[in-house]
């Protein structure tokens, strides 16, 4: 039943008393249609207002509207935690919805064929360079560390002059991956273009569909643009890029050799910690 699954998804954003209502509803299922709000409140020893807050948080107008969600036939799409949300939980709900929206829209933009192609290029390149400045540079460093743990040698460049210099000595056996949320970081764009002119394969992870970075790249993985929301609320603007890097890492780990190497690094670190 869709409403039950929806309640489960929203459970962690409810107050303890509202979670008590949620658990009772999940257990009762469709039989909740035969119970009034006063009866349910008395059974659970909560107030009517607690039940009213609960149904509004999961997207219903009132308790009657909530019970209608259990009837047979198609139901309107539930939109998540909304309506009158407790002040204490407003921020966490907003960030949760932002992350959920970014992942959903990024997943819709990326193509499996492009992911597979980039994984193939990573495996076969003689040298791999990852370019990024600012926050994208930190994301690049994370990507490079993961590749290193699989035994893939990657040079992460996060300084603009070094980026431009290395891009001029790259050749056709190499791969360059440019990271930029907007796709408008001038130094990254120029370095990727230099590498392409030298015959290297070039790839990008960006939200900028018509950006200079996308134009300079042989292959682009497009993500959802999160800059506006992130800047206004001081949250991670790199979330969409990190999501794609997670996917690439998991695809690479399907290779038994890379997987074995990664496990060796984990064992080494754990052994080191146990010795202390």
Automatic annotation (TrEMBL):
InterPro entries the UniProt entry points to: Homeodomain-like_sf, HTH_RpiR, RpiR-like, RpiR-like_SIS, SIS_dom, SIS_dom_sf, WH-like_DNA-bd_sf
CDD domains: SIS_RpiR (cd05013)
GO biological process: carbohydrate derivative metabolic process
Record-annotated SIS domain positions: 118-255
This protein's record includes keyword Transcription regulation: yes
Domain HTH rpiR-type, chain residue ranges per copy: 1-77
GO molecular function: carbohydrate derivative binding; DNA binding; DNA-binding transcription factor activity
Keywords: DNA-binding, Transcription, Transcription regulation
Name assigned to this protein: Transcriptional regulator with a sugarisomerase domain, RpiR family
């Amino acid at each position: 039943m869709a409403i039950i699954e929806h309640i489960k998804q929203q459970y962690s954003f409810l107050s303890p008393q509202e979670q008590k209502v949620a658990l009772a509803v999940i257990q009762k299922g469709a039989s909740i249609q035969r119970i009034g709000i006063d009866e349910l409140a008395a059974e659970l020893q909560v107030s009517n207002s607690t039940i009213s807050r609960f149904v509004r948080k999961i997207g219903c107008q009132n308790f009657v509207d909530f019970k209608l969600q259990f009837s047979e036939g198609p139901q309107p799409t539930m939109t998540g935690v909304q309506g009158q949300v407790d002040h204490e939980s407003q921020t966490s709900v907003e960030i949760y919805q932002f992350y959920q929206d970014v992942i959903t829209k990024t997943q819709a933009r990326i193509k499996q064929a492009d992911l597979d192609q980039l994984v193939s290029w990573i495996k076969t390149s003689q040298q791999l360079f990852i370019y990024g400045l600012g926050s994208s540079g930190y994301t690049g460093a994370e990507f490079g560390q993961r590749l290193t743990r699989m035994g893939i040698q990657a040079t992460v460049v996060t300084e603009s002059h070094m980026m431009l210099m290395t891009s001029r000595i790259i050749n056709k056996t190499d791969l360059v991956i440019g990271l930029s949320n907007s796709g408008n970081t001038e130094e990254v764009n120029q370095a990727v273009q230099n590498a392409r002119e030298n015959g290297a394969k070039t790839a990008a992870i960006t939200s900028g569909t018509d950006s200079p970075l996308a134009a300079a790249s042989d292959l682009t993985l497009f993500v959802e643009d999160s800059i506006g929301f992130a800047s206004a609320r001081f949250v991670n603007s790199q979330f969409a890029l990190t999501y794609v890097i997670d996917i690439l890492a998991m695809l690479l780990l399907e290779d038994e050799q890379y997987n074995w190497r990664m496990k060796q690094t984990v064992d080494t670190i754990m052994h080191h910690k146990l010795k202390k």
